[in-house]
Structures are given as C-alpha cells and as structure tokens.
Amino acid sequence: MRLFLAFRLLFTSRFYYPIFTILFLDYGLTLEQFSLLNVLWAATIVLAEVPSGALADIVGRRRLVVAAAFLMLVELATIGFVPLGNPDLILGAFVINRICSGLAEAAASGADEALAYDSIVEAGYEDQWPQVLESLGKLTSVGMFLAMITGALVYDREVMGTILSALGFGSELDPKALVRVPVLMTFCTGCLAFVAAWRLKEVGATPERPNLGSIRVAFRQVLGTGRWIVKSAPFVLVVILAGLALDSVARQFALLASEYFRQISIPTVLLGPISAGAALLGIVSAKVSRVLAERCRPWVNFAILTAFLCGGLFGVGLGIPYWGVVFALVPFLTLSSIGFLQSHYLNKAVDSSRRATALSFKGLALNVGMGLASVFYAGLLRHLEAGGLAKEATFFPGLRWFAPYAGLLAFLVFLAGAWFLRNEPPGCPDAARKAEAEAKPPAAPPATPA
Fold first, then answer.
1. Which domain holds residue 234?
2. What's this model's pTM, rounded to 2 decimal places?
C-alpha cells in the first residue's frame, strides 16, 4: 500500500503546474498552439482511457502502472532536453509530450487504484479502503502544495539568482536554462515514480503476457463491461453519471480560476500561494469525504455535494472583490470529494475481474463531461456577445449560469437514478454482493500483518 501511495504522490505532484501556460509560451509556442496541444492531450486520454483499463484487467495492473511511469519519463524528457531556438522542433517535442502525457494518464487511471484495492481485499482489510483514500488525499494535497510553491519559486529569475549566488555559482541565469528547471525537477520525481511502480506486485493469478490476442480480448472486455454497466449494474452507472454532472462544472471553473482571480482584483503574485492553499485544503476534504462515505447514503452525499457546489458557484458569479476567493475554493474541494466518493463506491460495487475497466469508464465519462461543459460555456459566451455584450464584459454573466447548469445536471441525474435504481434494495449499493457473500460459509479471519 505504501508503494501505491508513493506512486500516486510522485505521479501527480508536478512542479510546473503553477506556471503551466507560461511554460508553454516561454518555450516559444503560441497561444493557438497551446490550445491545440491540449485538445490533442484530451483526445488521447478519451481514446486510450477505457482500452487501457481493459488491458490492465487482462495483462495485469502492475504492467500498466509501470508503462504509465515510463511514459511520464518520455513525456518530460522530450521537452526537458529539446534544443531551444527551432520552433518546428519544439512544437514536435510538445506533440510527443502531450501524446505521452495522455497515454500515461490513461494507463495509470484505474490500474493503480484497482491493484491497491485488490491487495487490501486479499489481506482481508476491505473495510479500510476509505482510510486509504483519506491518506491518499492528504498526501497528494501536501505534495501538490509543495510542488506548486516550489515550482513557482524556481521559475522566478530573481529567486533562482539569489539561490545560485548563495551556493557560489553567481547570480546570472540563462533564461533558456530557467525554462527547463521545473520540467527537470518533475523528471527526477518521475524517476522515483518509476521505481515505486516497478516494485509493485501483482495480486491474484499471474496475468498473461501482452500480445495481439490480449489486445483483442481487451476490446471485448470493454464492450462486455459497457453492456454490464448499462444492463446489470445500475448503481455503477448512476455513480458514473453523478460524477460527470458535478465534476464537469467544477473542473470548467477550475480552468477559469486564474482569470476569475484577476477579475476580483487578486494580484498575480498571489496566484501561486492561493492555488497551493487550495491543494492543501484537500486534507480537510479527505477527512470529510471519509466521514460521508462511512456514515451517509450515496444519495445523501450526492445532495450534499450538489448543494455545496451550487452555493459556491452562485457566490463566484457575484464577483465579490478579494473575498470572492472563499467561494472559488468550493469547486476545488468538490472535485476532491467527488473523486474520493466515486472511488469508494465503484471499488466496492465492481468485481476484481473488471474493476480497472469500470474505473476507466469513470475517467472517460469525466473527460466527456468536461468537453460538454466547455461546449456549453463557449456557446454561452457567444450567445451573450450576440445579445450585445462586449467580449470583455461576458465573464461574470457567463459564470452566473454555472450554478443553474450544475443544478440542472444534478436534477437529471436524480431522475435517471430514480429510474435505474427503482428495483434495487434501498440504501445499499452493493446489496447483491453482500447477499451473495452472506450465503457462503464464513471465511477464516485474516492473519494480522506483521
């Protein structure tokens, strides 16, 4: 379990996140190229998400996690060591970077989590999964906090000059060297992530070696799991839809957060600390999410998160100078809780043989939801401009529609859930599995780990 926590921490904590857009531009890319590269990244994830999960169920979760760590190293090496000055070469390096990044995200999504959950089930500690998720939330929050603070500092020329001067290397720093520093720092943590992934052990029967046959089986697994979710696992379907509804709106605001902070008069120099503080609040979110998972029914939790998110988005739409930061934290906390609760419910409700595939369907749904929210926002801005508003005056009128949009999606999910779960036992998402387990003779108690 420690290796799983270490891998997830090292895989997600990236030093270039607080200066993500600036980094691309400082390499010499244009804003248009930046946008198209991120479309390429998203498309890669959507295409690879579910097949990679199915492949993990067939050839082994560990192999997919190791592949994700290796792709992370390729992703970072291409831009960390590319010669600067040739725009075409740099653009080609970033194309490789975005494709490898998308493939790495897809390969890791579900595989590492399924492997960790299988290991605690094998040890007989299935009920401790919420505690594992809480620990993961705390660790990743601290990791993101440190990465954002450090990444922003090392990208500051004056700060780096002071550090170099104190170490006796002089205060002059080549701007071409500075642009690589956060990337190469992340490459070093990526090496540690690869070591953690390599040391993971597969749980259960030895999986088959990857070959063309296993790829065909993986696609059959995708189709089979999709049919199973739609026809035989209504609770799994509703959990995926609920995550899509709330995550999509919260994530759309997260993309606009830096512009929102600028609009409410927050100085640019404070954006790094604010983002780091939001990441650190994930510690509180992890604790609260564990309590919700253990004490409340799924529908209650969905209602709580919906009310919390809509309230925060309503406050964001008011555009209150300075104090609007408080409302902006709500979508970030909601994102953390959504991930926690979806992981809790899906891992309990899905059998090990198709767990990684089902978790990949969750990832696919979240990316599709994000795309729909982006289309909604773009169409909304175009409508506001057609109504006579100047382009620069559409920001807050557009934000004011986020809360109603989230509420509408949540209401539709509630109606869909009421329909799909009309024949399910109330209050127990995995009632069928529990009934099946109760019908079997009791198993011997697990040995206490050393």
1. 227-422
2. 0.69
